[in-house]
Design goal:
It is built from six helices and 31 strands. It is of the alpha+beta class. It starts with a helix and ends with a strand. The C terminus is likely disordered.
């Protein structure tokens, strides 16, 4: 009898110690959260699925079990409390769903940024490294094309961020204008830049890139910048007299000033301006969403503009126009190279082509092929094998279409977009596809099999005005250039080189 009482007393003592420790923890949490209790809309809630009392048999189950979701409430695991969520911002209770999502996104970005800057990079594929690839190549187990593609994947996974210090001739007025667009020419020797001006409008110019002997990238900004009080909606390089001799800009109209498409000689933006820069012309047009230049000899010096419910094809020399009526806004365009065929992506999700050799037809029989994506198409890119076309939409879907059968043959997962106009960047010699998402992450896929190779976080917190613009090339700066990724975020420039030992800080020289 005494022995049984002794066992019962032992169980009671253990239970009292466990209970006192739990009460002490609760009292400490209550003391820490005393300042938050005044702002909290409701006290801590207790539900059948989340009991406040611990299990005497297992103290770890209380901390590991997730709290149940309650409609209209948010559970803070650090404070062990529920807080009421209100639609929109409120001074009395600033806790909103949007704020919580932004906080969680920023936490993930900071964690990924710290991981991305670490000394060790995660290989894009398991067991993939340059030593193993070289060994297989020497044994004849790997074709040359596959070896080059996989080497690029290894190099991409090891790229590290280096900031380009922007130096200005006027040190009292540093560059604070955010980059809006950057577009490289076909040789990646020059990059046309468009910056938002703080007092409204845009300024634009050209940056020239050169690869140094020591492996450093030098960048020089032209001293002849142009300013406009209108918004630049779309730009592309144009080959009028020679390759990439001009730049085509779509300017949005304001007030009583109509929109226009300007064809500017690239020599206007050189530091040694010639007396006769070349053909300079402007075509009045309503607001254009997109533009494209045709390189096929059958439609020489021809460009297109995508408008609301119309596509206009213009001869830059004679000014002759051909208008095609469309049932939706044309947000993306690109010409094929082998034939004078224009591919268009619409807000309705439709993708169709126009054969310029069939100018006389008034009905929609000039549409050579038609297929659809599920949302507004923001970018179309034709591959070197012109039977395939890449398209991205506002649902974040990136698909590779076989034009012959009008069916998607591959999809690239991970891209994020809801409503922004975001382009695709294709580097076929390296077998890479790049896209910047609305979440401000730059993602790189293998063009061949759709494998996600790298996710690069933005150096700045995510926001509508801080979506990066990128240029990628294995010869950034021309034939003697350096491989890597150029990223423009807000008013900063960053360079991600292939060379992991890259140390010399490249300099951007600007002139006001």
């Amino acid at each position: 009898m005494k022995r049984g009482n002794w066992r019962a007393r032992g169980r009671d003592r253990r239970w009292r110690r466990h209970r006192s420790g739990w009460q002490r923890d609760i009292s400490e949490n209550t003391t820490q959260d005393h300042g938050d209790d005044r702002r909290a809309a409701t006290p801590s809630l207790t539900t059948p699925g989340c009991s406040s009392a611990p299990d005497p048999g297992s103290s770890s189950s209380r901390t590991s079990a997730p709290a149940p979701e309650l409609p209209g409430f948010y559970f803070d695991p650090e404070k062990n409390r529920y807080f009421r969520l209100l639609p929109g911002h409120n001074n009395c209770n600033p806790l909103t769903k949007e704020m919580l999502q932004a906080k969680e996104q920023e936490r993930k970005r900071s964690a990924l940024l710290a991981e991305d800057e670490g000394p060790k990079k995660k290989a894009p594929r398991s067991g993939l490294n340059s030593t193993l690839l070289l060994h297989k190549r020497h044994l004849g187990l790997l074709p040359l094309s596959s070896y080059c593609r996989l080497i690029h994947e290894v190099k991409v996974s090891g790229m590290r961020r280096h900031k380009l210090e922007v130096q200005s001739s006027d040190s009292s007025s540093p560059n604070t204008d955010n980059f809006r667009l950057i577009v490289a020419d076909s040789a990646c020797e020059r990059v046309f830049t468009v910056n938002d001006v703080s007092h409204g409008g845009c300024k634009y110019g050209i940056m020239n890139f050169r690869g140094g002997r020591k492996g450093a990238l030098s960048v020089e900004m032209c001293d002849n910048l142009y300013f406009t009080n209108r918004k630049v909606n779309s730009i592309c390089w144009a080959s009028v007299t020679h390759s990439d001799s001009h730049v085509l800009l779509c300017l949005v109209g304001i007030s009583q000033t109509p929109g226009c498409v300007s064809l500017l000689p690239a020599s206007l933006f050189s530091n040694s301006n010639p007396d006769q820069p070349g053909m300079l012309c402007s075509f009045k047009i309503s607001t254009a969403w997109s533009c494209a230049w045709c390189l096929n000899p059958q439609a020489d010096k021809t460009f297109s503009t995508g408008l609301s419910r119309h596509v206009i094809v213009t001869d830059a020399v004679t000014g002759r126009r051909q208008t095609y009526g469309i049932g939706s806004d044309v947000l993306a365009q690109q010409f094929a190279l082998r034939a004078p065929v224009l591919f268009n992506g619409c807000r309705s999700g439709e993708i169709f082509s126009i054969d310029l050799r069939q100018r006389g037809r008034r009905d929609h029989s000039w549409k050579a092929c038609r297929f659809h994506q599920d949302s507004a198409v923001t970018s179309v890119r034709i591959l070197q094998d012109e039977n395939y076309l890449l398209a991205a939409d506002m649902l974040g879907k990136i698909k590779l279409w076989d034009i012959r059968v009008t069916r998607p043959v591959r999809q690239y997962e991970g891209h994020h977009n809801e409503y922004a106009y975001l382009p695709l960047h294709v580097s076929e010699p390296e077998g890479l596809l790049l896209a910047v998402g609305q979440d401000c992450y730059t993602r790189m896929w293998s063009l061949g099999d759709g494998h996600l190779l790298r996710t690069i976080p933005s150096p700045h917190p995510a926001g509508k005005d801080s979506i990066p613009n990128v240029v990628f090339s294995s010869q950034l700066g021309g034939q003697r250039g350096l491989p890597g990724l150029l990223m423009a975020v807000r008013h900063d420039l960053y360079y991600y080189p292939y060379n992991s030992n890259y140390q010399d800080g490249p300099v951007v020289k600007t002139y006001d």
